[in-house]
Amino acid sequence: MKIAVLPGDGIGTEIVAEAIKVLKVLDLPFEMETALVGGAAYEAHGHPLPESTLKLAQASDAVLFGAVGDWKYDTLDRPLRPEQAILGLRKNMGLFANFRPAICYKQLVDASSLKPELVAGLDILIIRELTGDIYFGQPRGRRIATDGHFPGAEEAFDTMRYSRPEIERIAHVAFQAAMKRDKRVTSVDKANVLETFQFWKDIVTEIGLQYPEVTLDHMYVDNAAMQLVRAPKRFDVVVTGNMFGDILSDAAAMLTGSIGMLPSASLNSKNQGLYEPSHGSAPDIAGKGIANPLATILSAAMMLRFSLNQAAAADRIEAAVSKVLDSGLRTTDIWSEGTTRVGTVEMGDAVVAALAK
Ligand code: IPM
Ligand code: MG
Hints:
Blueprint: E1 2-8, H1 12-25, E2 31-34, H2 39-45, H3 51-58, E3 62-67, H4 83-93, E4 97-103, H5 116-119, E5 123-129, H6 164-179, E6 184-189, H7 195-208, E7 215-220, H8 221-230, E8 237-240, H9 242-255, E9 263-267, E10 273-277, H10 294-306, H11 311-326, E11 329-330, E12 340-341, H12 344-356
Parallel strand pairs: 1-2, 1-3, 3-10, 5-8, 6-7, 6-8, 11-12
Antiparallel strand pairs: 4-5, 4-9, 9-10
Helix pairs in contact: 1-10, 1-12, 6-7, 8-9, 10-11, 11-12
This protein binds 3-isopropylmalic acid and magnesium ion.
């Protein structure tokens, strides 16, 4: 089993180090190889996704990814910005299905900004299409040209688009996931305004006919944002496009107490996957040793389950995380009165200790 480890920038290196520590105590036959990505790769090689990093990722069963980005790169031409690394990996590896589960651990009910009764027992799965939509349509703007700028440009645009096969395959992923859960799918669109999302809605409806046991409903994205904070438990599986999924998954993260708790998996049709926390590189807290490593540790668990066929080991990690939360240890982002504040490394150590028991 080969794992490409791409820690990236900011807190990426700190949190990935903790996940590796956890993976190592499992004593499974992994081969891990680390490479630079994002701003770190730009500094060293002049490109956020060097050919060697992409090749390593493509040749691995799974990629464990930290985070990329820093404000200091905001003025670079777009193809050279750190974010292009993650977008390039998603596109080049065909990682079209992004799973972002939002589970509220009972121990963290008080860390959520919502009333406890709204989030207690919350378990939603956001399935975000990851290689289409406005993210990968035709752009035009000041900083996209490799062959020169458009200094005097008076407009900029990005193109929203989806093809039938792209929608069909993500719809199948959503319905199949729902079959293993509460058998409910909410497809989120903006069909009242956008042609792309009328097309989306029609095709999801069509595919839904193949899954008669699953209840399908449709919701406009603005309403979905509202319902997520009004009555989040009404959702089971949410399926949506790249852009709306980006936004809604951040909102859903806060229901769980902190985005520092939210893992994610991005899979292609061969079950090769990239696993990363749903949060970013947080340059404001980088190097301080206070970032929450649990989203990355839980992403490593998803990696074991989805791409490496090690479901038992994944269960063990998740149980260990739950034990650590039971013991009252909290990083700053999930700290509340009466719990014990710990740093990144102590949190990783605690998960390792809980696994050993
Ligand atoms: C995410 C991030 C990325 C995205 C950025 C870093 C390109 O926000 O994974 O949600 O927009 O997809
Ligand atoms: Mg995002």
